[in-house]
Design a protein that fits this description.
The complex is a heterodimer of chains A (774) and B (286). Chain A is α+β, with helices and mostly antiparallel strands and 774 residues long. Among the domains of chain A are: 87 residues, Aldehyde Oxidoreductase, domain 3; 325 residues, Aldehyde oxidase/xanthine dehydrogenase, molybdopterin binding domain (Aldehyde Oxidoreductase, domain 4), CATH 3.30.365. Chain A contains 19 helices and 33 strands. In chain A, the strands form 9 sheets. In chain A, strands 3-7-1-14-11-12-13 form a 7-stranded mixed sheet, with helices on both faces. In chain A, a hairpin with a 2-residue loop joins strand 25 and strand 26. The longest helix of chain A is centred in the C-terminal third of the chain and has 28 residues. Chain B has 286 residues and is of the alpha+beta class. In chain B, 36% of the residues lie in helices and 25% in strands. Chain B contains 12 helices and 14 strands. In chain B, strand 12 and strand 13 form a beta hairpin. In chain B, helix 10 runs antiparallel to helix 11. Chain B is globular, with a radius of gyration of 19 Å. Chains A and B meet through helix 4 and helix 19 of A and helix 12 of B. The complex binds flavin-adenine dinucleotide. Flavin-adenine dinucleotide (FAD) binds next to strand 2, helix 2, helix 7 and strand 10 of chain B.
Chain lengths: 774, 286
């Protein structure tokens, strides 16, 4: 009997959101609160000679100017970061990119603070800077961090060995089979290079943190964070406090997409609040978000050996990730995404070299897909290229090479529960791939393309949940999963309700508060439904167990004979409400039934030399996209007329939410594909605003947006479910570029697909000269 | 953004008086859509803003005795878009407004602000330039009429004097039978500012093109008319070949500007194509 699972319940918080009543940290003000404004580096790489804050200090309304010297009074070793401890609370001696936080001005009036920030005079001795990931990885490039220290907070990152004295912060390698022998078997060898550009998350609620020192010596942090448990742990480490002195709370997030992971403003807000002994609020402007966290640009070089009949037999992948000035979670991207760089294909001989490279650009971290879209851009563009060159239908080529169940992935882990074939088939059906296609005429040419991507789950990570049944029989779930619009509240409520025989709308989800809700690794990487879902299931099962025990005493039957339905215990004809059960148990309306569930999947560390492991991921994510485009051959403008997204949901706990996650991710990636791009001049972002960094608008939407899922159950997923938040984004870019190729025969190898780039390629193809103007 | 004082006079004289105090730090405020962006990026830091929203007499939208369309500077772009008078007068204006930014911006942006801003990436100036429109400006020295081709001096530079306000837009009536078209090219999102815009108007007499008017904006530092292209079209019978030649000439003569939205070379390509397509559209009566 399932009533909640599989039901397209609308998001529980929708009404509060559309009526403006949902809680956001952005709107929080506390008595006595002051604001901070960050003074940022104006040079891309340099030593700080002198900071003169005297003029700013004298401005009426300025409470304090904080620099690294003041930070040291609270935190002796001010470096933090999830992978490497390379990021200081405020710049110490050196700045590493334009926008690097150098000082903080604090005051009551935000308008005064802007003026005050301008008055902080910082003198730099400029150092040579490097922005391109390939150039930065070369020997002799200016070294950005002289020493790099690993963090060792997360199990999966424990064996990352940072390399000091070079900008290659970390190198990951995988060796599978015998590459030389593989290439020797190949009839054709393809060597291509693909480039992905820097983009950024632009959550509509910019990153914001309020820190409030408590009277008892503790510290309360209110923050728009996707990782409250991590924030508490890291702050405790910096302050050398026990974790229980720090309380971290979140509310709804106005979008996250990976921008609000690990620590962002929390350390600086905490230090300022502790120095000043008052609540301090730091909130970024939209512009400042461009200086805070981005998605990695990447260069991917692929060498692929293929037999005449279209079998891939060997593939060598080299990836340089442009990590910007601080590693953030880049090393995890380098490894976890790196190892999937050969794609969802059965290739016997594979080598992968993946390099996390420091540059003097804003730091890069996770953005919806964790590096996978950059890899899929490369391997699915090349797959298309190979198929066309060999005269094989692009779908057939993928079908032929796809990893089938129980075949080993390049890591050595067997493909289990992964819907590669199912996604390909559904994609073919929704694209009507076998039917005739209108190719347009004149200056409007039409084409279509497909692509498919594979992602591993970040493994191993832990989620803990508590389910609490109150004296009146109502129920609450305590979880540190952050609902940032993806609908986790709804799905977790559905899972608890399913087990307890309740309606999900009656289940209260208690939002992250580290004093109250238990540990969760973070809301990232499509992990919550799977990990927290399992924890909630287990916690709810514990409560169900206790309820059945009470029922068996009331009904004088065996516990297994007691069913939970509509908030009642039922045995045959007899029913008592949960409230009555609680009264029976506690003698009055009182007490709690508490269940605790925790979930950590199995994992085997990869061998450092080969990168192989037989248990590298707890589940695989598979997503495919198809696009139909129209290209204006005289202007190069690409119009996507149809965008198909297929994801493997394992089991769609809430089909409505699965579809909106799939289409939402696909459309986000479509913006990145067509025109979203951070532009730099000498390391300075020159389009850091939504006026010049344009997001996909309503009129850019394809006239047909199709999102569907297949269900290949995950053995250890809750009811078989897998994460679905990112898979819609994985293969959009190559699907569109492949469609452009199909339409007009030009292959674009660097994103985004701006009209200018397409037109240049068309002119080149036609042998026409592009007249440059000055 | 810096702190500022907002004043909301009700009479034009009052507004002009406040503006004349110190044109450096006092700024007129129409809808504020452009002004706020400039202030947020701190390119402008005015001390006082003079909102014109309560000034009486700036909201007319009708034809005068001579058939000129007169539009008060505080008429919102959305009102222009929805006006049946405008639609009858020149449908190309109504159509251009549909893709001018989005309805939220059009609801607040004003005709005066749109024309005074001086950013070349705007949709109406090339159309109005082609139509031979002018603005009425009021300042300390009294009213004067400025033809649009004398209003735009350079990138964000207009011939408005310090303390001077646009109070009205005047568009002369189009000769009977004239048809027009405006084509907007965007490089980023579809609701972006234009990367290049082309306006084309002409009428046919005995199968020959009469009074052709071609204007280009966004690709260039200011909106410009293209007299050489107009001369090449005048008196000729419309044909695909003629329009292609017009496009080629347009590209040849134009001094394009590289920016985030496109290189000068690309913009020139687009202008070539769009001049041809705009002329084709006029010819086809679309
Ligand atoms: C997101 C966005 C997208 C946009 N996209 C487009 C687009 O696609 N196409 C397009 O054409 N435009 C676009 N615009 C620009 C929009 O049309 C202008 O912002 C608008 O026309 C300016 O009008 P406003 O009334 O808001 O001017 P304001 O911001 O009030 O003023 C603009 C300037 O003119 C001055 N000023 C205002 N009124 C007067 C007056 N009566 N006399 C003298 N000076 C005056 C101000 O001091 C200021 O310097 C966009 C704007 C935004 C914010």
């Amino acid at each position: 009997m399932t009533r909640e699972v599989g039901r397209s319940l609308p998001r529980l918080e929708s009404e509060a959101k559309v009526t403006g009543r949902a809680e956001y940290i952005h709107n929080l003000t506390l008595p006595g609160m002051v604001y901070g404004k960050i003074v940022r580096s104006t040079v891309a790489h340099g030593r700080i000679r002198r900071i003169d804050a005297s003029q700013a200090d004298r401005l009426p309304g300025v409470v304090a100017v904080i620099t690294a010297a003041e930070v040291a009074r609270i935190v002796q070793d001010p470096y933090y970061g999830p992978a490497f401890h390379d990021q200081p609370v405020l710049a110490v001696d050196k700045v590493h990119y334009v926008g690097d936080p150098v000082a903080l001005v604090v005051g009551e009036d935000r308008d005064v603070l802007e003026a005050a920030a301008d008055l902080v005079a910082v003198e730099y001795e400029e150092l040579p800077a490097v922005f391109d990931e390939r150039a930065a990885a070369e020997p002799g490039a200016p070294v950005i961090h002289e020493v790099i220290r690993p963090a060792a907070t997360f199990t999966d990152l424990k064996n990352l060995k940072p390399a000091s004295g070079s900008n290659v912060a970390m190198a990951y390698q995988l060796r599978h089979g015998d590459l030389e022998a593989g290439f020797a078997q190949a009839d054709y060898i393809f060597e291509d290079e693909f480039h992905s550009h820097q983009v950024t998350h632009t959550p509509l609620e910019p990153i914001v943190t309020v820190a409030e020192p408590r009277g008892d010596g503790g510290l309360d942090i209110y923050t728009s964070s996707q990782s409250p448990s991590f924030v508490r742990m890291e702050l405790a480490r910096l302050l050398k406090w026990p974790e229980n002195r720090i309380r971290v709370r979140t509310a709804y997030l106005g979008g996250g997409f990976g921008a609000k992971l690990y620590m962002k403003l929390e350390p600086l807000a905490a230090v300022a609040a502790l120095l000043l002994r008052r609540p301090v609020k730091l909130s970024l402007s939209m512009e400042e978000q461009f200086y805070t966290i981005t998605r990695h640009g990447a260069t991917v070089r692929l060498k692929t050996g293929v037999t005449r009949d279209g079998r891939m037999v060997a593939r060598a992948c080299t990836i340089w990730w442009n990590g910007g000035a601080y590693a953030d979670i880049g090393p995890r991207v380098t490894q976890k995404s790196g190892f999937t760089a050969a794609g969802p294909y059965d290739i016997p001989h594979v080598s992968i070299d993946s390099y996390a490279v420091y540059t003097n650009l804003p730091p890069a971290g996770a953005l919806r897909g964790f590096g996978i879209p950059q890899l899929v851009w490369a391997y699915e563009s090349q797959a298309d290229l190979i198929a066309h060159r060999l005269g094989i239908d692009p779908w057939e080529f993928r079908w032929k090479n796809a990893l089938r169940p129980d075949r080993p992935h390049a890591t050595g882990t067997l493909m289990r529960d992964a819907g590669v074939l199912e996604v390909l088939q559904e994609l073919k059906r929704l694209m009507r791939w076998d039917e005739p296609f209108d190719r347009g005429s004149g200056t409007r040419r039409r084409g279509r393309g497909i692509a498919i991507g594979l992602k591993a789950a970040i493994t191993p990570t832990t989620s803990v949940a508590i389910v609490n049944l109150y004296g009146d029989g109502s129920c609450a779930v305590y979880s540190s999963t952050v609902d940032m619009g993806q609908g986790s509240d709804t799905v977790l409520a559905q899972l608890a309700a399913e087990v307890l025989g309740l309606d999900a709308r009656e289940v209260r989800i208690v939002h992250p508060d580290t004093d109250v809700t238990p540990y969760d690794m973070a809301t990232l990487g499509s992990r919550s439904t799977y990990h927290m879902g399992n924890a909630v299931l287990r916690a709810a099962e514990e409560v169900r167990h206790q309820l059945r025990a009470i029922g068996s005493e009331i009904f004088k039957c065996r516990p297994e004979e007691v069913e939970l339905q509509d908030g009642h215990l039922v045995a045959g004809e007899r029913r008592v409400s949960f409230k009555e059960a609680m009264e029976w148990r506690f003698g009055m309306q009182a007490g709690n039934l508490i269940g605790v569930g925790s979930f950590t999947p199995t994992y085997k560390k990869p061998d450092p030399a080969t990168g192989e492991s037989e248990d590298i991921t707890t589940f695989w994510m598979v997503g495919g996209n198809g696009a139909e485009v129209e290209v204006d051959t005289e202007t190069g403008r690409v119009t996507v007329t149809k965008l198909v997204t297929v994801g493997d949901a394992g089991k769609a706990l809430n089909p409505g939410l699965v579809r909106t996650q799939l289409s939402g991710a696909a459309l986000m990636q479509l913006g990145f594909t067509l025109f979203e791009e951070m532009r730099f001049e000498d390391g300075q972002v020159v389009n850091a605003s939504l006026a010049d960094y344009k997001l996909l608008g309503m009129r850019d939407l394809p006239s047909s947006v199709v999102a569907e899922f297949v269900e290949v159950g995950a053995t250890h997923g809750p009811f078989g479910a897998k994460g679905i938040g990112e898979v819609g984004s994985l293969a959009v870019s190559p699907a569109v570029a492949n469609a452009v190729f199909d339409a007009v025969g030009v292959r674009i190898t660097s994103l985004p697909l701006t009209p200018e780039k397409v037109l240049r390629a068309l002119k080149e193809q036609a042998g026409e000269i592009w007249e440059e103007v000055e | 953004m810096n702190a500022f004082e907002l004043v909301r006079p009700t009479r034009l004289e009052e507004a002009l008086e406040v503006l004349s105090e110190d044109p450096e730090t006092v700024r007129p405020f129409g809808g504020g859509t452009a002004l706020m962006l400039l202030m947020r990026s701190r390119l402008l830091q005015p001390r006082r803003l003079v909102s014109l929203d309560r000034v009486s007499g700036l909201d007319r939208l009708d034809l005068d005795g001579e058939g000129n369309l007169r539009v008060g500077s505080m008429v919102r772009l959305r009102d222009l878009e929805l006006s049946a008078t405008v639609e009858r007068f020149c449908p190309a204006i109504s159509r251009a407004l549909l893709t001018l930014s989005n309805v939220r911006v059009r609801n607040v942006a004003t005709v005066g602000g749109h024309l005074a801003h001086g950013d070349p990436h705007m949709d109406l100036p090339p159309i109005l330039l082609a139509l031979g429109a002018s603005v009425v400006a009021q300042g300390p020295a009294g009213p004067r009429q400025i033809p649009l081709d004398q209003l735009y001096l350079g990138y964000y530079a207009t011939s408005l004097q310090p303390g001077e306000l646009i109070t009205e837009l005047v568009i002369p009536p189009l000769p009977e039978g004239t048809r027009g078209s405006y084509l907007k090219a965007t490089a980023l999102s579809a609701d972006d500012w234009p990367m290049a815009g082309v306006a084309a108007f002409f009428r046919l007499e005995q199968g020959r093109i009469v009074e052709p008017r071609i204007a280009v904006s966004a690709a260039t530092t200011t909106p410009v008319r293209l007299p050489a292209v107009e001369a090449a079209l005048a008196g000729e019978a419309p044909s695909e070949a003629l329009f292609s030649e017009a496009g080629r000439l347009a590209g040849r003569d134009l001094h394009c500007l590289s920016d985030l939205r496109g290189s000068a070379a690309y913009k020139r390509e687009v202008v070539r194509v769009y001049v041809r397509r705009a002329l084709q559209q006029v010819w086809a009566g679309r």
